[in-house]
Amino acid sequence: MSDKRLASAQSLDCAGRLIDLSFPHVMGVLNVTPDSFSDGGQFNASLDDALRRAEAMVAEGASFIDVGGESTRPGAVEVSVSEELDRVIPVVEALSQRVDAVISVDTSKAAVIEESVRAGAGLINDVRALQEPGALDAAAESSVPVCLMHMQGKPKDMQKAPQYERVIDEVLAFLQARIAACETAGIERSRIVVDPGFGFGKSPGHNLTLLNCLDEFQGLGLPILAGLSRKSLLGQITGRPVDQRLIASVAAATLAVYRGARIIRAHDVAATLDAVKVAQATIRETLDE
Ligand code: 7PJ
């Protein structure tokens, strides 16, 4: 098919697990920050909860589980390396042995990248696009793919006054520069995924332009990941609080896949996967199975 939306179909080798990108995948979100579990952060209960939650998301069809030990929500403060290691590594170790999915780690820190890959992670998802000290080399020395995300500013104040001349061009230029930096460091293009970073230093208008023009990112020739699940943009559009954004999240996921995203990062895996299948079937104008 000559459709431009299928031009970058390829596969990702995630520590031995092959992800076929000729169809879109869902990445389930697993936060392991202390406030994300009902016990208030007590270690064993957290680990158990994390495992159960991950297993449920895989049963719903998640191909990736994205483990995050640092909150990057607007206004969030940074955590120390040792704190992040303590939160993330036991979960990655347990999940990589017990869960039938690629374990992705949402981190920017070199030490967390190194230890996560050693513990069995199959993808590094960095909202800072490997710009922190040592992160590029740590990722290069591993053999797993990396997701490079665009962010303007830092989580602490990124939503205060986001500004762009032309948001698409600037996000594209940033990603191109980070792809070049990766290649120079020895990370081949076959290991790179890109993400415009919805909600990371962007106004509602910037986010909507990026979503509507997501297909322009296909010119990079790399798989596109999109994360819109429950984000404040959807609250601004619908007027709904974060716990009532499922339907808006599913609508946004559908649009993202229709515009070329291959991996959708989402909290609600089953619903998102159905949406992704509708978008994919529409792109192909046929059923895959
Ligand atoms: C994203 C992420 C995203 C990638 C978060 C939240 C904020 N990683 N980590 N893309 N968002 N690659 O889920 O609301 O959009 S944390």
Automatic annotation (TrEMBL):
- Which spans are transmembrane here? none
EC numbers listed for it are 2.5.1.15
Name the catalysed reactions.
Answer: (7,8-dihydropterin-6-yl)methyl diphosphate + 4-aminobenzoate = 7,8-dihydropteroate + diphosphate
Annotated ranges, domain Pterin-binding: 24-277
Q: What does this protein do?
A: Catalyzes the condensation of para-aminobenzoate (pABA) with 6-hydroxymethyl-7,8-dihydropterin diphosphate (DHPt-PP) to form 7,8-dihydropteroate (H2Pte), the immediate precursor of folate derivatives.
Q: How does it assemble?
A: Homodimer.
Q: What is this protein called?
A: Dihydropteroate synthase
Source organism per entry reads Litorivivens lipolytica
